[in-house]
């Protein structure tokens, strides 16, 4: 039986961040309480955030969580 592909979580964090008055990765990291490296990995799609972090990021951009993160099944 073929293995089912794991869904991935896509995001538009980089687009939102750069559209927000030149917010840097460090600025966003400071606002949500993580390291800049976490934001780098998140933007590259190499890191899946916890629900709490996803909610904090969405709040920074005044967006619904599903407007920032999308499950690609």
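-> sequence recovered:
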């Amino acid at each position: 039986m073929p293995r089912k592909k794991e869904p991935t979580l896509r995001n538009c964090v980089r687009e939102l961040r750069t559209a927000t008055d030149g917010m840097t990765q460090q600025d966003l990291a400071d606002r949500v309480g993580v390291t800049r490296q976490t934001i780098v990995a998140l933007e590259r799609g190499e890191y899946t955030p916890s629900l709490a972090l996803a909610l904090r990021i969405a709040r920074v951009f005044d967006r619904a969580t599903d407007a920032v993160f999308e499950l690609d099944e």
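The chain has a mean pLDDT of 94.
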